[in-house]
Specification:
- Helix content is 33%, strand content 20%.
- Helix 5 crosses helix 9.
- The protein is of the alpha/beta class and 337 residues long.
Length: 337
Amino acid sequence: SNNFTATSINFKALDSLQKILFYFSKELRKKGHEVTIFTRTVKEKNELGINWKNINKLTTENTDILIVVQETDFLKYDIKAKLKFLLLHYKPNIILDKSILITLLKHKYCFLYTNSYVINNLPVNYKYVPKVQLKLGVCNSFINANFVNPTQANVFVTTHPFKGLDWLIDLWLKHVSTKIPWAELHIYSKLLLEKIPKNIKIKNLKLILELNKNSGIVIKPPLPQEKFISQLAQYKIHLCPSLDNDIQYLNILESQACGIPIIARETISIHDCIYDNETGYVVRDKDNFARKIIQVLNDNKLFSTLRNNSRLNNYVLSWHDAVLNFERKINENTFYR
């Protein structure tokens, strides 16, 4: 991003990878490490102790640890480092061919990954590249949030419109709003707020919503983190309709950290962040998905149990603990021995 720096989190909604880079770097800096992030930022600066520099000035830097984020093109830079990582948060957008494998092995890169599905589905020859998991942390603002049980029957979703949102809207209209007409589904989506969308699928979704104005579906703009946290107190459920195994589950961990249970469709990755029947529900079909929504909204005792369990979910780590885990793996440093 051209404008992504340390203060971005105060002014706009960031995607999961940007948030991970920000909080991971911030915690490293708090522990005394020097951190420089190369992006497409126009103005170079130091914010919160983190150096932000333009990627075009990355030539022959010297560093203890180099982390290349997603972009295999940056592997070509001749940077001297004791440890080198290629961070994969989601599937690479190019085919990982033999030449990239050779580059990784020749320059002794390791994979640093956040999603087990992504790393387990790399081409078979990539098993020879050492792999290290970066456990995701959750910002203390979520962990320390102390919400009283909401009185509204509100649920929310932040899923991209192309990843199961049409499925969820259809389910809501046919199975939920007819049984709990006072319930509201809040969809945080920039695309659905476009007045004249270019994509035909977005147009169709907007048309369906326009024809069902009284169904309790509300479209909201994505919010900067602290403003978003202030809105979470009204919600009883976080819905995850995506079937994408490349799921970015940081926001699922964040919701559970502040006591909001999850109802999600079943994917391989979803079991890395939810305990089914304890911190929420993992379901396969529309009927069960709708049934679980209705159960949680109607049963305050069930909601309270799920809320307490969500807060105790041991998948939820602070960034302090996540960085401690990373440091321990780095200190072991047996990747290429």
